[in-house]
Amino acid sequence: MNQTELLQFLSTIDLFHFFSSKELAAFLENATEVQLAKGAVLFREGDPGQEMYIVLRGMIKILRGSRVIDIVKPGEYFGEMAIIENQPRSASVAALEDAVLLQVPLAVFYEYFSRQPKSLVSMMRTLSQRVRRDLEILGKEYEQINIMVHDMKNLLTPFHLLEVMERTVPGLAGNRYLACMVKARGDLLVLMENALAQAKRLQIAPAIHTESLDQLLVDLQESSWTVHSEIGGRGVRVEVTGSLPDFPFSSLGLCRVLSNLVLNAAQASEAGGRITIALSREGDAAVVKVIDQGHGIPDGMREKIFQPHFTTKADGNGIGLISCKQIIEETHGGSLTFESTPGQGTTFTIRIPFSA
Fold it and tell me: Confidence band (pLDDT; 50, 70, 90) for 353?
């Protein structure tokens, strides 16, 4: 667009209805056109936000994780929230097609829009519409997930035949692999019941019993970790230092945490790599370390490790570690931390007080 066309185009946007021609021309002198090729990423969730953008040509998609939450068309704008809140970007932005944007730096934003309350009201209207669309999408997705969980629960019914086999097939009574499958079915039912209860906004406290953490680790090592396609090829070793008392914890919760961490360790390791689970006592707390000899976590990714939807895997969803952190901190009053050396490996450390 030439200067005249650009001035005319901007004057049709609600943000600029209150600008004089002179103010609009001065505004344009301080803004910059940006070319964005189809598929190119302008910025990612968590990046610092120092500019807002107005779409002059093409279409832009706004994503949270891998989910598209909005499509921005010519004459619309985005990126203003990071400036208003002085916070990192809350979503990622990429071009759906070749696009031309007008980049508005932080200083220009404050110089022009902060003096125009009516422009700020227009921004709030746009943000409100965007939130409404996002909530509608979330509502539909949430409903579909609940339907699938309900149907999956029904599909677990044939697994009750495992107990029938144990009673009727010679030699299966007490089989530990069969017992592992029966327990897995029960754990799945509990998780599905909890998911359906959350859909009804019911609060269900996790089942916490006084048990042996040593035995839980041995059971996991001898059953589910052995048969898991990505874990079984690694050398998983459990080391117990000192004597730990039985104490209250959520067996299902810690199974989820430990399985997530061991799977991550296996995926970060080469075939034949060793994974060590070290259990010890430190004062009035149990400490579990999951140690791998993999490629480690790069420095630039460490701050994002526990952020929802952050993942380095092509097929990942970025919810495993945040789930682990919630279970350890919220259910057990403990902590989940990590140390990593690029090229040498990573250690995740769980601390759970005996009085959880």
Answer: very high
Which of 176, 204, 232 is at the close of a domain?
204
Tell if the pTM clears 0.85, that is, is over it. Answer: no
Determine the Cα–Cα distance for residues 144 and 323; give it in Å rounded to an integer.
21
pLDDT tens digits, one per residue of 200-219 = 777 777 889 999 999 999 88
Where is 334: in which H helix or E strand?
Answer: none
| Residues 222 and 261: beta-carbon distance below 8 Å | no
Residue 225 contacts residue 238 (beta carbons within 8 Å) = no
Which bin fits 64, alpha (ψ -120 to 50), beta or left (φ > 0)? beta
Asked whether residue 43 carries a pLDDT value surpassing 80, the answer given is yes
Percent of the chain as helix, strand, coil, to the nearest 5: 45, 25, 30
Q: Are residues 335 and 256 in the same domain?
A: yes
pLDDT greater than 80 at residue 273: no
Same domain, 221 and 192: no
CA distance linking residue 328 with residue 197, whole number of Å? 21
Q: What is the CATH number of the domain that holds 93?
A: 2.60.120.10
Q: Which two three-digit tokens encode residue 192?
A: 């599905």
Residues 171, 216 within the same domain: no
Place of tokens 């403990």: 334
Residues 213 and 348 in one domain: yes
Number of other residues whose CB lies within 10 A of the CB of residue 296: 18
Handedness of CA 42, 45, 49, 54 (dihedral sign): positive
Give 106-131 pLDDT, tens digit per residue: 888 777 776 667 666 676 777 777 77
Q: Are residues 338 and 212 in the same domain?
A: yes
Domain that holds residue 174: 156-204
